[in-house]
Amino acid sequence: MRDALRGERRIDADTLLTRLGAVRRFLDTTDGYLPDERLVAAHTLVERAGSRLAMSRDHTVVALAGSTGSGKSSLFNALARLDLSPVGVRRPTTGVAHACVWGPLAGATKLLDWIGVLPRHRFVRESALDADDESALHGLILLDLPDFDSVERSHRLEVDRLLGLVDLVVWVVDPQKYADRVVHESYLRQFHRHRDVTVVVLNQADRLSPTELPRVLADLRRLLDGDRLDGVPLLATAAVDRAAIGELRATLERTVAGRQAALRRLSGDVDTVVAGLAELVASEPGAGEVDRDSRRALAAALGDVAGVPAVAGATEEAYRHRAAGATGWPVVRGWRRLRPDPLRRLHLAGTTPAEETSESLVAATSVPDPTAAQRSAVGLAVRAVAERASAGLPPPWPAAVTTAARSRAADLPDALDRAVAGTDLGLRRRPVWWRLVGGLQWLVTLTALAGLLWLVAGYALRALGLPPPDNPTVGVVPLPTVLLLGGLLAGLLVAMLVKPVIRWAAGRAGRRARRRLDAAVTAVGEEYVVTPVQEVLRGYAQARTALAEAGAPG
Q1: Name one Pfam family in it (predicted).
Q2: 502 CA to centre of own chain
Q3: More confident site: 97 or 283
Q4: Which pLDDT belongs to residue 554?
Q5: Which of 40, 51, 387, 466 pairs with 448 at a CA distance of 20 to 30 A?
Q6: Distance between CA atoms of 108 and 173, rounded to whole angstroms?
């Protein structure tokens, strides 16, 4: 990984932008599904990366980070070859970040403003006396950070903030505290995905004897390997000796010349964020849709709550009621109209356009209220939809699926009522055969009435002493009697023949109404339960794809 600082492994800017775009799509896709606290790092990355890439890419921001007494401020001054950062015996000395800019300050102003270095703590490394010596570092912004183990909490918070913004970090340790647990566990170990932009310096190496220095460096290398920082550059420096910082200075020159540190840092940030988000998606894509059995169970439970069986039964009864009224003996039709229509009792659709319009104004049906068991069955069906659809998804996606399945539960009763009320039950048009049979009944009734009137007229003439009419006969039976009795018997016979037909047709009408009601209720379940669940499942699939695209290239 040391070669990475020499520019042998380059980060393509377009590839980095593609990965950042994938992280942004992941955030957009998971918005509202995942807890905000799980996405803070990703949001911070997208914001920081966008800001850093919009800044000058000709500048490389390098931070000297170290604990109290490590000598990083002295090293800062030695690299700048000027006394810029305060050095003292009292600890902590550095309370705010100081910056030294190699080259014109104007081009680095916006970047320093974004980093948050105050103008009075900015210095420009430009000198007519040694301009050629410093030209190799033009574009470098070197920061001297506060001590990360400072007793001042504000200092530690400032260090943590700045470490998230710089392009390359030079960790400065000293022979006395190079194995400090805080240094390794709280900081170095957290930078294992930023090996390309990490340098470790053992400062104050002049305090060690020639035999001690190799042993200390070997022990420090062992600790770094344990921190998963194997391969990062490990240098020995001494701020009091200009020659002892030559290797560090050469490393910084190569970094500045490569113009890759900012891209490598952001690439490492993407790696870190993707690794943190990886536990939110599984290696398998998941179900992707609600299975058929869950849909059927949900539709059945919703149908019971909506009163579909009752409405289908009422439709069958209404068919028999209306068919009997249309095909029965006209003399008793009025009596049948006195009986209430089963569908109208439920405030459902009538048989004429006027009745249909009138019924459509009713806000709700009069379908019997569901029982507690039926309502419980709906809850269980909704839960089953969520559980089976989210099977295999990692947390917290199952919770998001369950929330989506229940998101419109409060609207279900009204939606089901509207669906039932708006379903065409198939009784809005009278069948043609009703009219034919009804016409036939009128014909035989009029025939019987004609025979009755004929007989009454004959009796009236005899009562008045007038000669009775000479009635024609059918065999030995007078024609008026034949008409009366034949009409009555024909009407009874038609009614008896039509009755089983009506019963069969009513059952067929009830089954047809049941199918239409089931379809309407199923559509409500799809819209109010299944669709929200599928939106979450699609979001999971899109998030999984986006995270795969955001993964490390190659």
Answers
A1: MMR_HSR1
A2: 53
A3: 97
A4: 46
A5: 466
A6: 28
Partnered with residue 17 across adjacent β-strands are none
- In this prediction, residue 173 carries a pLDDT of 93
Question: What amino acid occupies position 9?
Answer: R
The pair of three-digit structure tokens given for residue 404, joined into one six-digit string: 């989506």
* Mean pLDDT of the 182-187 span: 90
Share of the chain above pLDDT 90, in %: 35
Looking at residue 388, its amino acid is R
Length of the chain: 554
Interval 292-336: pLDDT, tens: 898 999 999 998 888 888 888 888 888 888 888 888 877 777 666
Q: What's the CATH number for 2-280?
A: 3.40.50.300
Q: Which stretches does DSSP call E strand in 225-317?
A: 234-236
The residue written with tokens 């997208």 in the block is 46
Token readout for 402 is 């369950």
Cis bond leading into 92, ω under 30°?
A: yes
CA 206 vs. chain centroid, Å, equals 59
Cα distance between residue 455 and residue 480, in whole Å:
6
Tell me what pLDDT residue 90 has: 43
Asked if 179 and 219 count as a contact pair (C-beta separation under 8 A), the reply is: yes
Type of residue at 536 = V
Over residues 28-84, the pLDDT tens digits come to 999 888 889 999 999 999 999 999 998 888 899 999 998 888 888 889 988 888 776
Given this model, what pLDDT does residue 474 score? 78
Q: Residue 297 is inside which H or E element, if any?
A: helix 292-306
| Angle, helices 261-277/531-550, rounded to nearest 10 degrees | 140
Mean pLDDT, rounded, of the chain: 84
Nearest-angstrom CA–CA distance, 234 and 83: 25
Report CA 263 to chain centroid distance, whole Å. 31
- Distance between CA atoms of 274 and 268, rounded to whole angstroms? 10
Cβ neighbours for 214, distance < 8 A, ≥ 6 positions apart: none
Domain ranges of the chain: 2-280, 292-439+511-550
Helices marked H in 407-431: 412-421
**Complete DSSP assignment for 373-396:** HHHHHHHHHHHHHHHHHTTTPPTT
For 398, other C-beta atoms within 10 Å of its C-beta total 17
